[in-house]
């Protein structure tokens, strides 16, 4: 049995339970939010503070994963619950909102993202009403991969699991399935639990091809790499420039390159010299490219010997200088 399966079993045996208590609704929460509350917190971890509120309301309070290090110091007496909670969170740049059968505490942008996250159709075909089951879960640092295996293999929920179809959707980062999720949810639909797992892991949950999928349901299409345009010029043994096996002079070459630049934009010019040609035969081609405005020029030339094919029309001083230095 794989390590993920073991973790998934622990989720079921230790952290999951069925609940029959009345479901929390937005209306019920609005009534509870008016109740007076008193407390005195001194350097209390935010997690413990929210646990206190959860116990009073008998309702799940979900904490954004990026707020684990926050501590609360606050005192109040007979203050409405909603006002007390706001006063605690504001100094830390946090807000609260009731959504998806729970109270969510997070930065404003995270709350907006949670509200915009996809909603799973509880009546979607192929799930046999399982997404409407009411459950309670308390997860603590459980990897997303373990949750997908739990849903698929133990709850018999059609789901794309890590290594079992996930690759079909080309997720940008398969490591996201190692993301750990902490979540306490009381008496909520199984579909709601799945939605919260997607929100807290950063891999939104949706239904695709009849299965629960965590991650972008419509990943961006792979863009076709643009191949760089290459213009090849050969210099033969006689020092003549050739394009597609046809000899061209410098002026014609400059005009042709300018036409290509106007049509295709920037390009790379490769000059390939015949092994029997001397390097000085390459200079006219290079000068033509500079005149045409080419920025990227690559010269490929390896003569047969150090003094191969010296041009016959070189001045005597230049020819002797090349011979004395052993080449170019």
Q: Would you write up a description of this structure?
A:
The chain is an alpha+beta fold and 328 residues long. It folds into two domains: 3-214, Phage tail protein beta-alpha-beta fold (3-Layer(bab) Sandwich); 230-325, Nucleotidyltransferase, domain 5 (2-Layer Sandwich). The protein is built from ten helices and 15 strands. Strands 13-12-11-14-15 form a five-stranded mixed sheet. Strand 14 (268-273), helix 9 (283-292) and strand 15 (296-300) form a beta-alpha-beta unit. Helix 8 packs across helix 9 (283-292). 30% of the residues are buried. Mean pLDDT is 75; it is low at 1-21, 162-174, 306-311 and 314-328.
Report a brief summary of the structure.
The protein has helices at residues 3-15, 26-32, 46-57, 81-89, 108-116, 144-154, 190-201, 250-264, 283-292, 316-325, and strands spanning 16-18, 36-45, 61-63, 71-80, 95-99, 102-106, 134-143, 180-189, 205-208, 211-214, 230-235, 241-243, 246-248, 268-273, 296-300. The chain has 328 residues and is an alpha+beta fold. The model is unreliable at 1-21, 162-174, 306-311 and 314-328 (pLDDT under 50).
């Amino acid at each position: 049995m794989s390590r993920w399966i073991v973790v998934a079993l622990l989720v079921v045996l230790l952290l999951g339970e069925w609940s029959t208590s009345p479901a929390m609704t937005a209306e019920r929460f609005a009534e509870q939010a008016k109740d007076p509350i008193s407390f005195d917190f001194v350097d209390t971890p935010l997690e413990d503070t929210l646990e206190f509120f959860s116990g009073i309301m008998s309702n799940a309070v979900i904490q954004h994963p990026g707020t684990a290090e926050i501590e609360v110091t606050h005192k109040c007496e007979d203050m409405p619950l909603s006002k007390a909670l706001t006063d605690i969170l504001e100094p830390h740049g946090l807000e609260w909102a009731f959504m998806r059968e729970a109270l969510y505490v997070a930065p404003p942008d995270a709350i907006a993202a949670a509200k915009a996250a996809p909603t799973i159709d509880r009546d979607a075909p192929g799930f046999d009403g399982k997404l409407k089951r009411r459950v309670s879960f308390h997860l603590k640092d459980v990897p997303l991969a373990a949750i997908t295996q739990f849903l698929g293999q133990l709850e018999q929920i059609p789901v794309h699991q890590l290594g079992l179809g996930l690759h079909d959707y080309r997720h940008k980062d398969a490591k996201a399935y190692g993301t750990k999720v902490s979540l306490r949810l009381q008496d909520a639909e199984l579909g709601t639990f799945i939605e919260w797992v997607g929100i807290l892991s950063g891999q939104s949950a949706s239904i695709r091809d009849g299965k629960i999928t965590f991650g972008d349901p419509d990943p961006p299409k792979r863009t076709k790499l643009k191949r760089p345009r290459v213009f090849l010029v050969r210099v033969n043994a006689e020092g003549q420039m050739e394009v597609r096996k046809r000899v061209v002079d410098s002026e014609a070459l400059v005009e042709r390159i300018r036409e290509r630049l106007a049509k295709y934009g920037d390009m790379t010019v490769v000059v390939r010299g015949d092994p029997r040609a001397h390097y000085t035969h390459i200079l006219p081609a290079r000068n033509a490219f500079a005149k045409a405005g080419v920025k990227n020029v690559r010269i490929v030339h390896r003569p047969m010997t150090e003094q191969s094919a010296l041009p016959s029309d070189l001045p005597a001083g230049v020819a002797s200088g090349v011979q004395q230095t052993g080449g170019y």
